């Protein structure tokens, strides 16, 4: 864990919150009432609160957006909005996308192409994803319904020529991490995760320069504010850069150990009012 950072509760902050495992519970998709209350009160107090997620804009659940935010950093930093205005957007280059898609498809590793308004995949990979055992108990969740409503099936020829894709999500029933890193990690940002209950390996691939921390930099530039105003909360590997970059980086109680190790502080789990408790501790609710 990093050294504790003292904060002046009177300064207006820019707060960045991950979605899965931070705003909402990973197993149930529940957004706690205490979290909604904390966000509303912090904004009333003049602080600005941003979503900062690996999700593309199309699959940020509407019930989360209804809470009210000042903007969003989506696609792990490739797309940034502030108060309804797009302030940064950097999709993958078409030739880079082709390289990634050709490799994944050759290895029969499933993938989603993530644009701002929709996800794209091949029919066989949509079936592969749906057949993952862990989804059986989640199909009725509101966020999963929105996710599947925004998937469009395309042919491989149509996938490789697109110029609107921010990043890719990959998944496989076999361990494909070493193959992907050996082939792509020198040129692209590759972040992996493991879903043990379904014996699934998954992760994200984006441009090398794209991280949530870079998305936060864009927000700071937009408001002409310094890093000292930032507070970020997350739980998984794609949160690492933003946790390290923010003046105060907070790990959820349910975060992986690698995130807890680099955080300034650790709050409670999602359903243990972790967001509310951290907002209270750092003066956002005063």
Automatic annotation (TrEMBL):
- GO MF entry, a single one: phosphatase activity
Among Pfam families, the record links this protein to: Hydrolase_3
Highest taxon of source: Bacteria
List the InterPro entries: Cof (IPR000150), HAD-like_sf (IPR036412), HAD-SF_hydro_IIB (IPR006379), HAD_sf (IPR023214)
Which organism was this protein described from?
A: Anaeromicropila populeti
Q: Which PANTHER family match?
A: PHOSPHATASE YKRA-RELATED (PTHR10000:SF25), PHOSPHOSERINE PHOSPHATASE (PTHR10000)
Give the UniProt keywords, A-Z: Hydrolase
- Enumerate the transmembrane spans: none
Instruction: Say if the entry is tagged with keyword Hydrolase.
Output: yes
Q: What is this protein called?
A: Cof subfamily of IIB subfamily of haloacid dehalogenase superfamily/HAD-superfamily hydrolase, subfamily IIB
Query: Is Flavoprotein a UniProt keyword of this protein?
Result: no
Q: Which SUPFAM superfamilies match?
A: HAD-like
């Amino acid at each position: 864990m990093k050294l504790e950072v003292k904060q002046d509760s009177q300064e207006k902050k820019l707060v960045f919150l991950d979605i899965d495992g931070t705003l909402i519970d990973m197993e149930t998709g529940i957004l706690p009432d205490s979290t909604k209350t904390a966000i509303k009160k912090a904004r009333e107090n003049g602080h600005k609160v941003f979503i900062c997620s690996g999700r593309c804009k199309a699959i940020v659940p509407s019930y989360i957006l209804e809470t009210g935010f000042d903007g969003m950093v989506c696609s792990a930093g490739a797309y940034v909005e502030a108060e309804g205005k797009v302030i940064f957007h950097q999709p993958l280059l078409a030739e880079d996308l082709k390289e990634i898609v050709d490799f994944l498809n050759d290895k029969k590793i499933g993938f989603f192409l993530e644009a701002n308004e929709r996800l794209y995949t091949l029919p066989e990979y949509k079936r592969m994803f749906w057949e993952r055992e862990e989804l059986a108990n989640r199909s009725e969740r509101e966020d999963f319904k929105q996710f599947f409503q925004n998937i469009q099936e395309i042919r491989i020829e149509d996938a490789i020529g697109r110029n609107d894709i921010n990043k890719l999500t990959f998944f496989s029933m076999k361990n494909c991490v070493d193959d992907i890193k050996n082939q792509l990690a020198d040129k692209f940002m590759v972040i992996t995760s493991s879903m043990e209950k379904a014996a699934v390996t998954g992760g994200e691939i984006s441009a090398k320069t794209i991280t949530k921390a870079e998305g936060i930099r864009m927000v700071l530039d937009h408001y002409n504010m310094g890093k000292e105003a930032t507070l970020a909360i997350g739980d998984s590997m794609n949160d690492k850069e933003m946790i390290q970059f923010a003046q105060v980086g907070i790990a959820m109680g349910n975060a992986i150990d690698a995130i807890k190790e680099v955080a300034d502080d650790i709050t409670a789990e999602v359903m243990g009012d972790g967001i509310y408790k951290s907002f209270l501790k750092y003066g956002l609710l005063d």
